[in-house]
UniProtKB/TrEMBL annotation:
Domain of life of the source: Eukaryota
InterPro entries named among the record's database cross-references: HPAT-like (IPR056508), HPAT/SRGT1-like (IPR044845)
Subcellular location: Membrane
Every Hydroxyproline O-arabinosyltransferase-like domain range: 42-278
UniProt GO molecular function: glycosyltransferase activity
Transport keyword on record: no
Principal location class: membrane
Source species of the chain: Sesamum latifolium
Name assigned to this protein: Peptidyl serine alpha-galactosyltransferase
Chain ranges passing through the membrane: none
């Protein structure tokens, strides 16, 4: 286990007339002391041993400090034994090494995203820090924190986590939820930003992992019309694992579509996002950025290298007259500039030569940039929750519940049954038949020697 040296923040927040509400903030005279029970916050994020995640880690860690996020942070690092032999980034963040499940130890399924719930389960079981925390904030690595994420200030309570809205999780409204949770009516389309009480996470985490495995195995329902996954490859199974797992343990989220924004999107009027999630390409004029173009980028370890500089703030004022669209452009450049500032400081801290003066480096070190990127505070509109109708309406599915179904058919090792198998399995997928299908294949030893398994 490698652990970087970072200071935890002890923040005293003066709160007037704070009321007791479930597991939310409680009144302690006139002060809430963040960092002491019951106001201890811990932030988690999950990554693997790759350059792709290392530069994201540098950006997230820099924004964590810059935004003055209270409490400690832990990187849940999943590495294969082979990856660990050459990995250089153990000191990038306070780190807990967790066993890699990228290749599932039982099924052989290759699905690195499962490391997120598996890492959380491991942290809860094996980290001493997990024993001394009241609230947990779970983020993705490809995020920039703009201001303190304090769960009870967002409205989180014990039994009612706060989460960002992921509207494309259409499986919450169709047969997918009915197949994978006994409480499909509790399935929430959430992800990205998760803020919850530690007791809720302890109940949820094992189910999150289990449901992720379950959805990965349900290949019959990976299609876009069931999952919303445009690739239809089961890549967002972990997201459904979270939503179905939360439904199983009875958690109902307070859903907020204002706290997190993708660069490139236009913020709502009066809303100050406190989290940038750069999961999608974004652009400003002729300049653009996509994280996928930097999948193998060793920029963390290349002294003096930064991402291409975006336009300067004064150029945006000339570029866009609409105030909200201009705010969106400012968020775009804030995202990449914060990443570059983090890389610049990281290189300096690791013995890189001082880079030559440039207009852009001067800007990143300027009071103007510091003022533009100082910690943001929640606005009243940022706190507004979405109204969620508990009565779910199915999308393209009949009004009935499906039990868990498995289809079985029996064949022998001969071409006669092979063409029938192709037709049956093809029709199985086309028809949307719920559940999985298994062929019971009977072969003699002699048949097996020549049989070409399909």
């Amino acid at each position: 286990m490698a652990r970087g040296k970072f200071l935890s923040l002890l923040v005293v927040v003066v709160v007037a007339g704070l009321s007791v509400s479930g597991g939310g903030a409680q009144k302690l005279g006139n002060e809430v002391v963040v960092g002491t029970a019951p106001y201890r916050i811990h932030t988690l994020f999950s990554v693997e041993c790759q350059n792709y995640f290392d530069w994201q880690t540098v950006g997230l860690m820099h924004s964590f400090r810059k935004a003055q996020q209270p409490g400690p942070i832990t990187r849940l690092l999943s590495c294969t034994e082979e990856e660990k032999k050459t990995y250089k980034g153990m000191d990038l963040a306070p780190t807990l090494e967790v066993p890699s499940m990228s290749r599932h130890p039982k099924t052989g399924d290759w699905y690195p995203a499962i490391n997120k719930p598996a890492g959380v389960v491991h942290w809860l079981k094996h980290s001493k820090e997990a024993e001394n925390v009241d609230w947990v904030v779970i983020l993705d690595a490809d995020m920039i924190i703009r201001g303190p994420i304090i769960p009870w200030e967002l409205g989180a309570e014990k039994g009612r986590p706060v989460a960002a809205y992921y509207g494309y999780l259409v499986g919450c409204d169709n047969v997918l939820a009915k197949l994978h949770t006994k409480h499909p009516e509790l399935c929430d389309k959430v992800g990205g930003l998760l803020a919850m009480h530690i007791d809720d996470l302890r109940a949820l985490a094992p189910m999150w992992l289990s449901k992720t495995e379950e959805v990965r195995e349900d290949r019959a329902h990976w299609a876009t019309n069931y999952t919303g996954d445009i690739y239809g490859t089961g890549w967002i199974s972990e997201m459904y694992g979270y939503s179905f797992g939360a439904a199983e343990v009875g958690l109902r989220h307070k859903i907020n579509d204002n706290l997190m924004i993708y660069p490139g999107y236009i913020p709502r009027e009066g809303v100050e996002p406190i989290l940038l999630h750069y999961g999608l390409p974004f652009s400003v004029g002729n300049w653009s950025f996509s994280k996928l173009e930097h999948h193998e980028d060793n920029i963390v370890y290349a002294c003096g290298r930064l991402f291409p500089e975006p336009p300067y703030p004064r150029e945006l004022k000339e570029m866009e007259g609409d105030p909200n669209k201009r705010r969106a452009l400012f968020l775009n450049i804030e995202c990449i500039n914060t990443l570059n500032e983090g890389l610049l400081l990281h290189h300096a801290a690791h013995g890189c030569p001082k880079p030559k003066w440039s207009k852009y480096l001067s800007f990143l070190r300027s009071k103007t940039f510091a003022e533009l990127t100082k910690p943001k505070q929640l606005t009243p509109r940022s706190r507004q929750m979405m109204e969620v109708d508990v009565q779910k309406q199915d999308v393209g599915e009949p009004e009935k519940s499906y039990p868990k179904i498995h289809t079985i058919f029996s064949t022998e090792c001969s071409p006669y049954f092979d063409w029938q198998t192709v037709g049956l399995v093809h029709s199985f997928h086309l028809s949307g038949q719920p559940g999985n299908i298994t062929r019971l294949l009977s072969c003699t030893e002699e048949d097996l020697k020549q049989y070409n398994r399909t």
